[in-house]
């Protein structure tokens, strides 16, 4: 759903292509590159990564830099996709904002609320757009569920649950020094994998009032963060719910979101409608869109959702509005995960906002 229109004058005309750069050429960057190339309103001009070979492979003919600051010096680049490790988002995003570039950053926005706020403030000060990747929001099934909730078709909301019981091997965590660390990953199954559905849960159910959580590292080795977590939530509207997440299961299953109201229930699996049971409301006819599933393999996810967000940012720039998922909206999921971690450490419920 569109956010409030910003006051900054348009930087491009509706007919112009928005020129992108990508900063960070790790695994997730391939989704951004494919999304840009498949979006007629966008063009990939440059890639920056400390590893030139990795950057050149991703760039496929675009300009390559080993210092991202040189990419930011280019006057033709309108926006950047920030694909560096989560704990490095803040300095890169702030440098991009100070260079006058619009920013689309991978989830999570940052690994702490203080760093997330610093990014938001820098983009506000520079009058640039800030979008955050939560591509599951853009799926037709998710959009239909949100519409049903927002228009009161489920009646009074009573329960909202998110289950992300995925598998990540030990090799996955061993593949990069930053994976599974508090400093760079910001957390484990919650902050990295489940955060998409934490976002969907709060988007559907509304703000969280309080949380009690447990986290633990039960299976994986050589990681600082949790591979297993569970939390109980009370929402501001009085409804209750749960978040369960793991990367410790032998085999992953589709991520599941359950929204229950007095008049019906909607269940989503990997963003697709698995159950639509609403009194007097038939299942809507929807386009078939499949993002793939990260249940057992993060590389099995397609770029379809990222393309929707590239297009949204391009249009937000042209129409002078905020992206659908802006920094303040993306911050909410980081706050919920942070509250679960705090509760797990203290053994006590945590009140929100933090």
Report on this structure.
The chain has 10 helices and 14 strands. It is of the alpha/beta class. The chain folds into 2 domains: 18-135 and 306-323, Rossmann fold; 140-279 and 333-351, Dihydrodipicolinate Reductase, domain 2 (2-Layer Sandwich), CATH 3.30.360.10. A hairpin with a 2-residue loop joins strand 11 (256-261) and strand 12 (264-269). The longest helix has 20 residues, at 327-346. It is globular and about 55 Å long. It starts with 17 loop residues before the first strand and ends with a strand.
Task: Note the topology.
Blueprint: E1 18-23, H1 29-38, E2 42-48, H2 52-59, E3 63-65, H3 68-72, E4 79-82, H4 89-98, E5 102-105, H5 113-126, E6 130-132, H6 140-150, E7 157-165, H7 170-174, H8 189-205, E8 208-216, E9 228-235, E10 240-246, E11 256-261, E12 264-269, E13 272-278, H9 304-319, H10 327-346, E14 350-351
Helix pairs in contact: 1-9, 4-5, 5-10, 6-8, 8-10
Q: Short summary of the structure?
A:
It is built from 10 helices and 14 strands.
Question: How much beta, percentage-wise?
Answer: 15-25%
Assign the CATH topology of the largest domain: Dihydrodipicolinate Reductase, domain 2
Q: What is the overall shape?
A: globular
Query: Which superfamily, in CATH terms, is the homologous superfamily of the largest domain?
Result: Dihydrodipicolinate Reductase, domain 2
Mean pLDDT equals 94
Number of strands: 14
How many alpha or pi helices? 10
How many domains? The number is: 2
CATH architecture of the largest domain: 2-Layer Sandwich
Distance between the termini: 26 Å
Rounded radius of gyration (Å):
20 Å
**CATH level 1 class label of the largest domain:** Alpha Beta
What is the helical fraction, as a range of percent?
A: 25-40%
Largest beta sheet: strand ordering = 13-12-11-7-10-9-8-14
String of helices and strands: EHEHEHEHEHEHEHHEEEEEEHHE
């Amino acid at each position: 759903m569109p956010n409030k229109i910003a006051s900054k004058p348009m930087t491009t005309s509706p007919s112009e292509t928005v020129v992108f750069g990508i900063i960070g050429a790790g695994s997730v960057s391939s989704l951004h590159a494919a999304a840009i190339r498949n979006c007629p309103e966008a063009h990939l001009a440059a890639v920056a990564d400390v590893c030139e070979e990795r950057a050149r492979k991703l760039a496929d003919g675009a300009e390559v830099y080993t210092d991202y600051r040189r990419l930011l010096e280019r006057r033709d680049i309108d926006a950047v996709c920030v694909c560096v490790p989560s704990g490095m988002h803040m300095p890169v995003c702030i440098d991009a904002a100070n260079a006058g570039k619009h920013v689309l950053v991978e989830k999570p926005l940052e690994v702490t609320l203080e760093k997330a706020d610093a990014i938001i403030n820098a983009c506000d000060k520079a009058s640039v757009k800030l979008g955050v990747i939560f591509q599951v929001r853009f799926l037709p099934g998710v959009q239909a569920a949100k519409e049903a909730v927002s228009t009161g078709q489920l009646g009074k909301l009573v329960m909202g649950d998110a289950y992300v019981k995925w598998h990540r091997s030990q090799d996955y965590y061993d593949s990069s020094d930053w994976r599974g660390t508090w400093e760079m990953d910001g957390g484990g199954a919650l902050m990295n994998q489940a955060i998409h559905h934490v976002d969907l849960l709060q988007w559907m159910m509304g703000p969280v009032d309080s949380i009690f959580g447990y986290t633990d590292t039960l299976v994986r080795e050589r990681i600082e963060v949790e591979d297993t977590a569970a939390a109980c939530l009370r929402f501001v509207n009085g409804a209750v719910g749960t978040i369960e997440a793991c990367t410790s299961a032998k085999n992953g299953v589709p991520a599941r979101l359950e929204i229950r109201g007095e008049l019906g229930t909607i269940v989503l699996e990997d963003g697709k409608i698995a159950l639509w049971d609403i009194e007097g409301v038939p299942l809507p006819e929807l386009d078939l869109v499949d993002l793939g599933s990260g249940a057992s393999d993060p590389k099995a996810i397609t770029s379809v959702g990222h393309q929707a967000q590239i297009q949204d940012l391009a249009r937000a720039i042209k129409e002078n509005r905020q992206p659908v998922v802006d920094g303040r909206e993306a911050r909410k999921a980081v706050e919920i995960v942070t509250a679960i971690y705090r509760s797990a450490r203290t053994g006590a419920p945590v009140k929100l906002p933090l």
